[in-house]
């Protein structure tokens, strides 16, 4: 049986699964904080006991949502070479390990926040005074670029896609209004119609694959294709914590599928199919609700990271440098 999880770890995992905590950066930050809590509150008296608790906590956090690689990357950061860091045995070793995990988690959270403000400064340089941007979903990395431009004294306007079915566009619209950015909120299907007055499409990423493909909220790929058709550059704002190291070795990124109920209410379903008066399921009617899609690199103009901007085809170099061959998942051992 798994060792007992701290209630905060369980609460964090539930909040991620239910999307109360959402967005790749926020998920990673919360996972690191939860690991620190597990370590801090643990009364394990041996390093082995503590490691086992941490692995159980990491597994619980990991199994919430599959697509944002920032989550396993947060776990990787905290777990990296953890075996080697505790020479002492017994309770002294456990204390040492506890302190290391708490420090690592804090360091990770700080580095992610710093990366975001740094990439925001870089992305801001791509925007000119008077530009109109189009956004999809809610990405704190993408918004950091707009914030950077505003701080540089540029006037920016925004066309904000509402982003069905969860309407994360409303969060983006609220944030932009707080910065006094003029906002036009549109339904997703109106994107192409509005692109003629847009200077940049700016989106975030949940994962970036070794070939430069961008995995982000479903609808991103369609938007990128019509943006290309109209000659509007597509900029992906994504800190290096979004680079998916396992794609270096041929793995693909799992696309999360969410509940039918996000798309169709019970009464709406009943209005389409009346077969289930007796509780029967109509096998010829289905709802599919993928949460993310894949934008091929040829539709992306630049990936803006805290290490500078890259053409999508060259992020693989950065990926190798940052992760090397070490893509292990130490919490599964
Ligand atoms: C969120 C989403 C965001 C990325 C980047 O999807 O697709 O664009 O996570 O966000 P969901 P950030 O709402 O399903 O979690 O830049 O904040 O990491």
Structural class: alpha/beta
What bound compounds does this protein have?
Answer: ribulose-1,5-diphosphate
The residue-averaged pLDDT reads 94
Count of beta strands:
10
Shape category: globular
Biggest beta-sheet profile: 7 strands, mixed
Give helix and strand order, one letter per element, not per position.
HHHHHEHEHEHEEEHEHEEEH
Number of helices: 11
- Tell me the distance between the termini: 15 Å
How would you portray this structure in words?
There is one protein chain. With 333 residues, this protein is α/β, with parallel strands linked by helices. Helix content is 43%, strand content 11%. It contains 11 helices and 10 strands. The chain has a 7-stranded mixed beta sheet. A 3-stranded antiparallel beta sheet has the order 5-6-8, with helices on one face. β1 (132-135), α6 and β2 (157-161) form a beta-alpha-beta unit. α4 (70-79) packs across α5 (90-125). The relative contact order is 0.13. Ribulose-1,5-diphosphate binds at residues 22-25, 68, 137, 139-142, 168, 204-206, 216-217, 291.
